[in-house]
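Re: folding output
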Amino acid sequence: MIVVGLMSGTSGDGIDAALVEIHGRGLSVRVHQRAFCVLPYSTALRRRILAVSQDGDVADVCHLNALLGELFAKAALTVIKQAGLRPQQVDLIGSHGQTIHHLPRGRREPGIGLVHSTLQIAEPAVIAERTGVTTIGNFRPRDLAAGGEGAPLAPFAHGLLFRHPRRARMVVNLGGISNVTYVPSGGALEEVRAFDTGPGNMVVDALVHHLTRGRASMDRGGRLAQRGRVHDGLLKELMTHPFLRQRPPKSTGREEFGDAVVRRLLARQRTLKLSTTDLLATCTRWTAEAVGVARRWLRGPIDELLVGGGGAKNAAMMRSLREVFMPIPVRTFDDIGWTSKAFEAVAFALLAYCTFHGIPSNLPAVTGASRRVVLGTIVPGRATWSSSNR
């Protein structure tokens, strides 16, 4: 099948679109990436998405859900054209959407107990209508309904596509939030372990945006952090964050590492009289150290690290990871033939493929769900409707 995967992470910087060809089932599945593109959000739209994630009203959520559906459809059509195909030649679209809130530990309701929830927007019906392609979205809620955290979901793809007969791999995704997947050598999917580790690019991006008064949205290549020095005292404080001590399964987002954390960091910068570069160096190191302490929850050796996500392009972050994990070799997805930035979009193409075939694609040992379930909501494309009406 030809499948498009669409992804926008917690950094909220744009839409990643990957077009892949998928063959086979189970451990024999093969995925070939044919095209990849990024549709960046405008500065104004990114600001609106981040605002609605914190305290947006229902009208904002309603409008952005439809607006992002239009933009996700545009990203899908762009990558299809880039691959030299027409929409009629594409079998499926798998869309993660844009997470605007994630409450995996739930809120207690009288007479019901804990209610667990997550919300991704970018209306799949809009994507299906604009492209004509059957679209699968809303992947996370079914795992939550089955008692899981709804995240992380990409470890299913890590377990299938990064298995190695002799090497145990720790897969590190440096997105807005960082997460790790442990893929034992020659291991079955049931042996894969994964969870969020905490801060990723989200904290550093927010600090750069604030400290440059909006002139920059990220520390591109880690250039600013590389010029600074880590403040050991502040780093020690940051490492006491309760999420880092929480046992898996666990997932997190902007609710724990968003504006409140950034405000505290800016206040500590003033108190400690830190330069911008020292603050960024310290927070960049925090991301790497948080990944490092995740080893306490993994059983078995680690023969190599594979690093993907936007942070794989941050030289300061990669240097910190290599120092934290020395002497374990650290490589990027690109080093083994994958596009680091594209992989999560590829993962949701694979999840959509599994959903279409009725294959469960959550990993209960990862998310905490009571059982394996088929994820997502299917919105038929125009060809599906036409054939059913004949």
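--- second protein (sequence, then structure) ---
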Amino acid sequence: MHRFAAFVVVAVSTACAGQRVESVRSADLEGALEAIELNIAAIQRHDTEAYLTQYLSSPELVIAGADSLRRGYMLFAEARRASDQWPESLITETPTLVWIAPGVVWGGFAYVSVVGPDTTRGVTERLLLKTTGGWKIAVTGSMERCE
């Protein structure tokens, strides 16, 4: 009888832990999706300050491009504030999200961007971290498709 009670306790504990993990996973994916949507909306509105609030304000922020890899929020924010270049049109597909661990979500999506006469198609990805200030993009990168 004692072994059966121990088995029941372990089985119930495991089931509850699984439910808690799924609850955390689900909440993380929802929060990260909202952060990505806010990021896209800020780009579409050409709202520099709203755009910058979506990024981790840290020297650990990573910005990866086809021809560069930069680190640090300060230089990223200065460059964004100094530029008035925004896409005239930005169309994105529904983001694909992958829960990595509690408070860590990877997201990626395809996009079409129009700036002047140039149309760019590509894929962008973000690694988001849950912070005390909400979900923040800690790593961002884009890859343009060659056509």
